[in-house]
Specification:
The chain is α+β, with helices and mostly antiparallel strands. Among the domains are: 178 residues, no CATH class; 59 residues, no CATH class; 90 residues, no CATH class. Helix 3 packs across helix 4, helix 11 packs across helix 12 and helix 13 crosses helix 14.
Length: 496
């Protein structure tokens, strides 16, 4: 009885709207998830003999730029949904909808500014050039191989000509041959579409990447799933840090919505190193009730069936049989060692000086390395001396907190400017609608509408109009009463 109730409780968390996504290209990154800048996307994998087994590189159009967070949402929420709805075999031409419809589905207000940025994001996706060498297993179990240099699809906007000669009545994508082949033959995996929509880009990407490992763990009755930090940074892609505190802050923000939703019950970090000896961490995940509910819903009898999917080929196997490494320095000691301080001196510094003093000097040294690389020749000696003597900040230095505050202020100003632009666009659109309504009326109806506007006007406004004697003033006041009346007829808010 208790087991039955437990299953019922888990089932109530099951997703209501499932989207099935191909498992070949979706595991590799196409978009940068940072709001600005450019991130190089290049993944290569080799076998034991050194032969390249995976190559994945993304280029972007020089005019439209690298696909960013909005382009990522467009691909994963709009394009993938339309592809799924099209069924197999996939048609070459797929209708996405109007720019306004796409804005609504993305939760954006319908405005000229938003349709412009959506159009640009569509062009960024269409211009993402993939150079790839990939092996994958198709849905029928056959081994397949893709070696290609191409984009996934072209985009055709309303009023432009489609390949079949018709004029597009909305936005369409035209799939390229290699992409259609993958969509028609690849295995698929289910994801919670409503959950995807509510996640910020980096957290959404973690959901897509981690779902492989979590489903495998639940399928094989393992209590936890593992993913290395460096691997996630490569597959996201994200800026990879080598200092624990930066990693902790970065991943805490990404994990937060998954903890809150119950997708993750727990996350632990195990310090390790990558194949080049650089600091890395294995992230150990405990599936939460939402993850278990998804697995139950996707695999229960009569419901959707999870196809047998391969884990990401670039994920390293867990070092189950490796000899445990000797305990090494952690925290601040490791950060000092990474910057050239000897292990013994690092231990002494951490023991003898406050952590905030050490952290401040590390941050100042990192700033000098970036802005004045020739100034410090021996990093380790300089840093140790700076900590002992508590060097003052170098000229021009701003701490990470100060830079973050400046960036926050700049973003807030940009947001305010964008809101102002959107408000002006709405005002222009409303004025255009009022003018169009008036100009479409026949002359006899215009006189009647002016009378209705005067009768329904605010008493003070009507009195001002009736008291006016100069014809230009009366015409101006009459136009104001008329516009206010038309706004009421159209359901528009009163003009400011």
């Amino acid at each position: 009885m208790n087991k039955h109730k437990s299953n019922e409780r888990r089932a109530t968390l099951a997703p209501l709207d499932v989207i099935r996504v191909e498992t070949v290209l979706s595991r590799y990154p196409i978009h940068r998830l940072a709001k600005s800048g450019t991130v190089r996307i290049s993944i290569r994998g080799t076998d034991a003999d050194g032969e390249m087994t995976v190559r994945w590189e993304i280029g972007h159009h020089s005019e439209y730029g690298q696909p960013g967070p909005l382009a990522y949402k467009l691909d994963t929420l709009i394009v993938n949904r339309r592809i799924e709805e099209a069924g197999r075999p996939i048609p070459r031409i797929i209708r996405l909808g109007s720019l306004n419809e796409i804005c609504r589905e993305l939760g954006l207000a319908e405005s000229g500014a938003n349709t412009t940025v959506v159009k640009r994001a569509l062009l960024q996706n269409a211009g993402a050039f993939i150079t790839a060498k990939i092996r994958y297993k198709s849905a029928d179990g056959a081994a397949r191989r893709i070696e290609v240099g191409d984009t996934r699809y072209a985009v055709v906007f309303t009023g432009e000509t489609l390949p079949n000669g018709r004029t597009a009545d909305a936005v369409y994508i035209v799939l390229h041959d290699f992409y259609r082949e993958i969509l028609d033959t690849a295995l698929t995996r289910p994801l919670d579409y409503d959950y995807l929509k509510g996640l910020p880009p980096a957290a959404q990407r973690l959901y897509e990447v981690l779902s492989y490992a979590l489903f495998a763990a639940l399928k094989n009755h393992r209590p936890r799933a593992r993913l290395t930090y460096s691997e996630f940074c490569r597959l996201a892609p994200l800026t990879r840090h080598f200092e624990w505190e930066r990693v902790r802050v970065q991943m805490a923000q990404i994990h937060a919505p998954h903890r809150k939703s119950g997708y993750l019950a727990g996350v632990e970090f195990e310090a390790t190193a990558d194949h080049e000896g650089r600091a890395d961490w294995t992230m150990v995940y405990e599936p939460g009730p939402k993850a278990k509910a998804e697995h139950l819903a996707f695999t229960k009898r009569g419901g959707p069936i999870v196809l047998e999917i391969e884990p990401p080929p670039v994920e390293p196997p867990p070092p189950a049989e490796a000899e445990p490494p000797e305990p090494g320095p952690t925290g601040l000691e490791q950060e000092l060692i990474e910057r050239g301080v000897t292990r013994g001196v690092a231990a002494d510094l951490v023991r003898d000086f406050p952590a905030d003093r050490i952290t401040a000097q590390i941050e100042r040294l990192d700033w000098l390395r970036e802005t004045k690389p020739k100034r410090v020749k021996d990093l380790g000696a300089y840093l140790a001396d700076a900590i002992r003597k508590d060097f003052a900040p170098p000229a021009g230095f701003r701490s990470q907190a100060e830079r973050a505050e400046a960036e926050t202020t700049a973003r807030a100003e940009q947001d305010q400017q964008e809101l102002a632009r959107q408000a002006k666009a709405r005002e222009r659109e409303e004025r255009d609608r009022v003018r169009a309504y008036w100009e479409a009326l026949p002359p006899e109806r215009r006189a009647a509408l002016d009378a209705e506007a005067l009768a329904g006007a605010d008493p003070a406004d009507r009195a001002a109009y009736e008291a006016a004697t100069a014809p230009p003033v009366r015409r101006l006041l009459q136009a104001g009463l008329r516009d206010a009346h038309i706004r009421r007829l159209l359901g528009l808010p009163a003009a400011d």
